[in-house]
Structures are given as structure tokens and as C-alpha cells.
Amino acid sequence: MSDNPITGEVSNSKLAAIFPVPASARAAAVELVEQLGFQPAQVKVITADTRDVDIKLEPEGGGIWRTIVLAHLKLCLLGAVVGGLVFAAMMWVGVPYVESSPWAAGGWWVLYGAIGGLFLGGLVALRPDHDRYIQAVRKAIAAGGGAVVVHALSTAQQQEAAGFLAGRGADVTRTL
Q1: pTM of the full structure
Q2: H-type alpha helices, the chain
Q3: Is the Cβ–Cβ distance between 14 and 152 less than 8 Å?
């Protein structure tokens, strides 16, 4: 289970360890599974001759709609609550325009909060933090190197794998 309550993805924390030689990447992946107890399905080796690179980088592509819907729904509701709290604070302080028309002001603040939450949901669904991770792997395989891609189940597991692979001489790139 993911430790990210917004997206609900199983593997929300990903990392790519870049090695200059594909053989080093393969050896590091085997050691990662054997020594740290990662499941083989969590650890992928990508080289220039690897097929289905996109699926290995983002295996939950079919579930992206679930991520999009959950992120938008949860952040929209959170934004509406924040908008309601802003309205309540303005009522408490005694802002004249809010006190003179509380239903309209309250509705607008809740609506603005919900719209702001939808914008944040869109940003989460775009996954801008994954671009750096994907580009690092693509550059490595284009240069003849290899990459170990780890689909961690939590941020703690991601950090453990990053430390282990960096100790093997890899250049590690992570998602948020």
C-alpha cells in the first residue's frame, strides 16, 4: 500500500539508479533483491536492448485514471473545506462585505477553494516529478549505460534503495 493518500497508487515512490555499464546495473539489481529483500517485481533493469521501457518505468499506466480521479476529488474537497474555513475566519473577524451577504460570500469562498483544489489535482495528475526520473533513464540507455528502476512501496523503502544503490556507484534520481 502506498504512503501517499492523495494518489492511492501502489508504487508512488520511484527511483532510477544510473550505471555507466549495463552489467553493473544487473549486478546491483540482484544484490538489491537478495540483500534488502525487495520483491523482484519492484526492481527492473533497463538497458538499450530492453523492450517496453515505458511499461517498466511507469507500470501503473492503466491505473492513471484512478490517480486522476482520486487526486481531483480529494483535493477539490480539501479546497472546498479550506474555502469554508477562510469564509468562517472572515465572518469571525467581521469583514463588512461578508457579514452583509453571508450566503453569497460563503458560496463563493467554497467554490474558489474547490476550484483551487481541482487545479492542484491537475498538477498532481500531471506528475511533473516523474519527468526527471524518466529522462535520466532515457539518457542512460541512449549513452549505452544501464538503469535499475525501483518501484518502492513507501518513501522509507525508496530511501533505503537509494542509499544502497548510491553506495554501488550509481547516480540516483527519485520521484517525490
Answers
A1: 0.68
A2: 22-36, 53-57, 64-93, 96-100, 102-126, 129-142, 155-166
A3: yes
